[in-house]
């Protein structure tokens, strides 16, 4: 196992301040008082944690995409890559952002959920293109841009990149899903 130690007892000054800021910014979104373990372990390289955390905070709390699109993108990417950790952390926020349980469950499958708004359906196609290392179809990008601007199209791809980094970190350093979070609907095993 290639685990990383918990560095929180060694953090001081700006690193400790950044840690506290990240925990506070994310606590309201996930309904948890603690910072997710992927970020905790990332603080073994505090500058990396700060910069990755800043990107995550921008995309999750200050981006162009509405919450339902953002959470759908994250859940679809997590399902396609079988990143259980990301799924576990975003399953709960999906509901308050407007995604019903049937849609969330369907996102984990191969077929797109029935009855999605056009911008949500386009976002799913875009995520699938990213995962397949293909260009987003022009008509799909046009639909995303019409709904959320060019920034929205960029953010969909950036979310995939951010959650790839998180997923790789979880896998590489054996970071488990924290207790009390929902497990994904696939059976590949916990934590990845």
How would you describe this structure to a colleague?
By secondary structure, this protein is mostly helical. It has 2 domains: 54 residues; 106 residues, AhpD-like (Up-down Bundle), CATH 1.20.1290. The chain is built from 8 helices and no strands. Helix 1 packs parallel to helix 3, helix 4 runs parallel beside helix 7 and helix 7 crosses helix 8. The two termini are 13 Å apart.
* Second rung of CATH, namely the architecture of the largest domain: Up-down Bundle
Number of strands: 0
Shape: globular
Secondary-structure element string: HHHHHHHH
**Distance separating the two termini:** 13 Å
Summarize model confidence as the mean pLDDT: 92
Helix content: 55-70%
- Biggest sheet, in brief? none
Enumerate the spans where pLDDT stays under 50 for 5 or more consecutive residues. none
Tell me the fraction of residues in β-strands, as a range: under 5%
CATH overall fold name of the largest domain: AhpD-like
Number of helices: 8
Radius of gyration: 16 Å
The overall number of domains is 2
CATH superfamily of the largest domain: AhpD-like
Structural class: mainly alpha
CATH class term of the largest domain:
Mainly Alpha
Topology:
Elements: H1 13-30, H2 37-42, H3 46-61, H4 67-81, H5 84-94, H6 101-107, H7 118-131, H8 138-172
Give structural attributes.
192 residues; mainly alpha; AhpD-like; 2 domains; 64% helix; 0% strand; globular
